[in-house]
């Protein structure tokens, strides 16, 4: 009995030692705070764990030279807040207008310290529940059939405090430096610790390992004081304006390309870093050789007894000794804190620095574990903006909506409209939606058709990678077909070897819209929801399977898709062909005529005129319609003769002429010409 009581009390102590929350978020960086905001708005039980004393600790150190490459465009000429987010790459999503980044910095490329201050304000002003100075050092699973996902996540911090949660959101980013080990790598300085004072490099010769923005940022800082800088990487330089990927080399950092191509001593080389070796001579100079020269030699031997490449090839490119070698190879995800039971595996190939996740951002190995922010970039690596604030603020919102449906029965937000508003709804979204614009080819608007295409249900910014699971992931049904609205670049326009400035690169005619190169809207039509198999067998570089019909809205120099003939009319006719219906708007006069001459009225007449709905006309609007040839001038007053205006007949005519005639807005008058 004593043993049983002791065991029971021990279990009670162990149970009490775990602090429970429905949602645990690891990391109070931008994505962690963004997830916390949505959970708090929904009234959910959550806690954010941050190892530092303040949010955004990554930005307290990086970038080392303190200039962000995310743009802060304060003026667009528009007052639409959703549109302006297309060109604000730093703000997180919230209801508080004070938390727009343009209120924190006037710089186009802001200072990283401003980002730290912004994230601190975001957490404090919104009263997010963040537990600072808490480093999670171990995560494991506890199987329990009563748990949301069949198990709980058990977290342990540096003080051995334990936490239990039903769903785990990992928002730690990628912060572990990439290191390449080769003979002599101990002589290499890391980007994370190297001096940022240019005077420390005065008169020195420097070799930089790497070819990304951190490497070029480092070179830019010391370009004016060094003898020369060489840069080595296994891949060629990729310019962001050619690849349309914001993580590639940005113009703000590419000064070394000028000095290389204009023969000012600096240069770029390609080679596998694992094949290199570094030897230090008696004067402290660093010599570059190849690993195979050292395979059968003592690496501690004198440099005079070691064969160098220039001994056999006297014009070897890196034959000059270097004063310093700097490693700038980026970062990778920290897998060390996750128990093997979670099966958090690295990706393959160039995605090995990220954990393997599904297009829904859920771990492939563990249900209920979602990866947010930069660490989730494997979904759209080198394709879209999911690794950056202006991308993952939207994917984080998408994950929250998936969780709301799965765990709380809250369907994906949607709006139902009559079918007559289909064209207008699409045009409105492609002209202002920031999530579609930033997460092109990844997030899409879904239009679910109701029976007989009399109405539609509009879902915004759904991850297209899980389109086949739409009904289970959103709680919405799609039995009658759907449209998918997405933004895309031209198929063959982006790439490191592409000339994106070639003559006649832009398409201006609507009939050639499918050849558009720049970012433009594309509408896919499916008579039924695509299957998992169709998603897997979709053509290479296609975000979606082959549709039953597809429509490209021609690219626009101003990214303003409101031209009546070039943009709206072709779209409306495409939608009409898919639905076998007439989506035009009509004057009441036309609807009245159709009612007597047609067995089936157009949807606009059925849903508007026949229900006595429409825009009240005026004499001025009628006169303009008559002048434009859109209405006949019946000259109703000619029939009145000299009737007094207060007579019943006169009053009735005045009512007909000034108040009853339903007409549509002037911006839609062009459509009436199609009658």
Structure description:
The protein is an alpha/beta fold. The protein folds into 4 domains: 19-175 and 332-402, FAD/NAD(P)-binding domain (3-Layer(bba) Sandwich); 185-329, FAD/NAD(P)-binding domain (3-Layer(bba) Sandwich); 414-579, no CATH class; 588-626, no CATH class. The radius of gyration is 31 Å and the shape is globular. Residues 5-16, 636-643 and 647-675 have low confidence and may be disordered. It comes from Chordeiles acutipennis (Lesser nighthawk). Probable flavoprotein which may function in endoplasmic reticulum associated degradation (ERAD). May bind non-native proteins in the endoplasmic reticulum and target them to the ubiquitination machinery for subsequent degradation. Its cofactor is FAD. InterPro entries: Auxin_biosynth/cation_transpt, FAD/NAD-bd_sf.
Offer a concise description of the structure.
It comes from Chordeiles acutipennis. By secondary structure, the protein is of the alpha/beta class.
CATH class of the largest domain: Alpha Beta
Q: Uncertain spans, ≥5 residues at pLDDT below 50?
A: 5-16, 636-643, 647-675
CATH superfamily of the largest domain: FAD/NAD(P)-binding domain
Please state the average pLDDT score.
Answer: 88
């Amino acid at each position: 009995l004593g043993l049983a009581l002791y065991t029971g009390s021990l279990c009670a102590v162990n149970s009490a030692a775990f602090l429970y929350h429905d949602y645990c978020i690891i990391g109070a960086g931008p994505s962690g705070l963004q997830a916390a905001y949505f959970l708090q708005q929904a009234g959910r039980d959550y806690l954010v764990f941050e190892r530092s004393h303040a949010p955004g600790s990554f930005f307290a150190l990086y970038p080392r030279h303190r200039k962000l490459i995310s743009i802060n465009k304060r003026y667009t000429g528009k007052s639409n807040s959703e549109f302006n987010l297309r060109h604000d790459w730093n703000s997180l999503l919230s209801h508080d207008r004070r938390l727009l980044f343009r209120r924190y910095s006037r710089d186009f490329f802001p200072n990283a310290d401003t980002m730290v201050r912004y994230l601190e304000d975001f957490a404090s002003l919104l009263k997010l529940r963040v537990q600072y100075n808490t480093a999670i050092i171990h995560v494991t699973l506890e199987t329990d059939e009563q748990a949301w996902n069949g198990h709980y996540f058990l977290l342990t911090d540096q003080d051995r405090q334990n936490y239990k949660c039903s769903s785990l959101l990992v928002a730690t980013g990628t912060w572990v430096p990439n290191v390449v080990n080769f003979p002599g790598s101990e002589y290499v300085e890391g980007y994370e610790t190297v001096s940022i004072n240019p005077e420390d490099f005065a008169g020195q010769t420097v070799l930089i390992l790497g070819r990304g923005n951190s490497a070029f940022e480092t070179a830019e800082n010391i370009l004016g004081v060094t003898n020369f800088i060489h840069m080595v990487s296994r891949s060629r330089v990729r310019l962001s304006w050619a690849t349309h990927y914001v993580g590639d080399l940005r113009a703000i950092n590419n000064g070394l390309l000028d000095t290389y191509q204009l023969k000012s001593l600096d240069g770029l080389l390609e080679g596998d870093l694992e094949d290199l070796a570094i030897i230090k001579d008696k004067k402290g100079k660093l010599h570059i050789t190849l690993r195979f020269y050292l395979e059968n030699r003592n690496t501690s031997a004198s440099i005079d007894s070691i064969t160098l490449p220039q001994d056999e090839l006297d014009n070897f490119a890196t034959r000059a000794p270097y004063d310093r070698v700097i490693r700038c190879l980026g970062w990778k995800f920290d897998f060390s804190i996750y128990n093997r039971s979670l099966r958090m595996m690295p990706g393959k190939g160039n995605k090995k620095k990220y954990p393997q996740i599904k297009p829904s951002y859920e771990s492939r190995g563990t249900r209920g574990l979602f990866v947010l922010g930069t660490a989730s970039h494997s979904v759209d690596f080198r394709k879209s903006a999911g690794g950056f604030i202006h991308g993952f603020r939207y994917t984080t919102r998408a994950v929250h909506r998936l969780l709301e449906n799965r765990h709380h029965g809250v369907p994906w937000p949607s709006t139902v409209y009559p079918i007559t508003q289909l064209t207008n709804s699409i045009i409105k979204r492609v002209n202002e939606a920031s999530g579609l614009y930033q997460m092109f080819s990844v997030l899409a608007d879904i239009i679910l058709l109701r029976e007989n295409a009399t109405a539609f249900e509009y879902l915004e910014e759904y991850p297209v990678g899980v389109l086949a699971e739409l009904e289970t992931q959103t709680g919405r049904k799609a039995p009658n077909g759907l449209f998918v609205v997405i933004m895309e670049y031209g198929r063959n326009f982006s790439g490191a070897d592409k000339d994106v400035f070639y003559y006649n690169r832009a398409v201006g005619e609507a009939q050639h819209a499918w050849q558009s190169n720049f970012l433009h809207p594309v509408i896919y039509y499916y008579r039924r929801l695509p299957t998992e198999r169709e998603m897997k067998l979709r053509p290479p570089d296609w975000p979606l399977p082959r549709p039953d019909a597809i429509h490209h809205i021609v690219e626009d120099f101003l990214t303003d898709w409101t031209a009546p003939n070039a943009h709206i009319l072709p779209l409306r006719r495409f939608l009409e062909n898919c639905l076998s219906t007439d989506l035009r708007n009509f004057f009441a006069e036309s609807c009245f005529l159709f009612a007597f001459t047609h067995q089936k009225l157009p949807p606009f007449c059925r849903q508007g005129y026949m229900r006595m709905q429409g825009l009240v006309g005026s004499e001025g609007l009628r006169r303009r319609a008559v002048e434009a040839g859109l209405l006949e001038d019946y000259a109703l007053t000619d029939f009145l003769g000299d009737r007094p205006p207060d007579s019943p007949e006169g009053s009735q005519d005045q009512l007909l002429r000034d108040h009853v005639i339903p007409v549509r807005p002037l911006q839609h008058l062009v459509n009436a010409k199609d009658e």
